[in-house]
Amino acid sequence: MVVRRLLLAIVVAVAGALVASPTAMGATPISVAAAIGQQNGSSATVRGYVVGQPTATNTVVRSNFPNDYALAIADTAGETGTGRMLYVQITASFRSEWGLRTNPGLMGARIDVTGPLSAYFSHAGLTSPTGFALAGGTEPPPPPPPPPGDDYYRTAAGKTGAALKSALHQIISNNSRLSYDQVWNALKVTDQDPNNANNVILLYSGRSQSKSSNGGNPDDWNREHVWAKSHGDFGTATGPGTDIHHLRPEDVSVNAARGNKDFDMGGSAVSQAPGSYTDADSFEPRNAVKGDVARMIFYMAVRYDGGDGFADLEMNNSVNNGSRPNIGRQSVLLQWNAQDPPDTFEKRRNQVIYDTYQHNRNPFIDHPEWAAQIWN
């Protein structure tokens, strides 16, 4: 009888410990902000978006990841302020699945990480983790389908300079066209938040926002022409003005702040678009989409060469291009293309446009190296 009571007491004690443990199965995740304020060594499960790899106390890189040893998470996918990020150590047993050098497609994913809340890189962190999972308990998403190979780009093989540009123009110019009204619904699919099928991701803001909140009111999202439609005066008639390879969802006020400015570095911070800057004649997008912007501009400069009733769109190294069919700065855009290579979101978007809408591709997402081979 004494032995039975002792065994029962042990079972109850163990069960109680499991229930009390903050790392037990079913623990409710806390936010990154809460984890930053709870750096006392206690264990917790933290939920946040992967926003890069910390390499120093105040430095997080979003591409060209040097190793698989750490990642940074934040409460919003577009966060650029390191003070609002949690630095997560990735120990050896998790590196093959959760390291960013091996798995760059995790950028932007929403994940749950469990472990002690303590400083890492002398920064609010989570060290010696005991578990990683995509939010909701699913496995990491599969990579996007590979781009078309030799068949799609067959006539461009081996070419450089003007010959490569001409070959790519021929390849991508036989595309289906959308009306400007059709663009609304297309963007709800091409720019869908991979973690919330009811939302889209806004280009410059990085904000996840309801698909149904599109329109012209403050804090709605509308259709941003990355190649400003006044640069060539092509408006919104079917053609370049409705080409969804360069049309993206964006907050109404941020779209207005960008206006028809060229792209360059510097300026004052843009309200509602963390990490973006603007001045009187230029706009600088956040780091996570600098390459996206550059590759959209490259596409437009190849697709529209003046042969189909629209202006011949070309880059130059100027700002203040006004209504001329030019956009700049070319040197900065080439730098952004190299700095921010295509990620999973951008590759998926290219595939959806090819499969479902226009049936052509942005070659510079499939082959970002071609930009330097054309504009060197």
TrEMBL record:
Classification via Pfam families: DUF6359, Endonuclease_1
What are the record keywords, sorted? Endonuclease, Hydrolase, Nuclease, Signal
Specify the taxonomic lineage: Bacteria, Bacillati, Actinomycetota, Actinomycetes, Pseudonocardiales
Question: What name goes with this protein?
Answer: Endonuclease I
Keyword Hydrolase on entry: yes
InterPro entries according to UniProt: Endonuclease-I, His-Me_finger_sf, YhcR_N
Give every Endonuclease YhcR N-terminal domain span: 30-132
State the signal peptide span.
1-26
GO molecular function, a single term? endonuclease activity
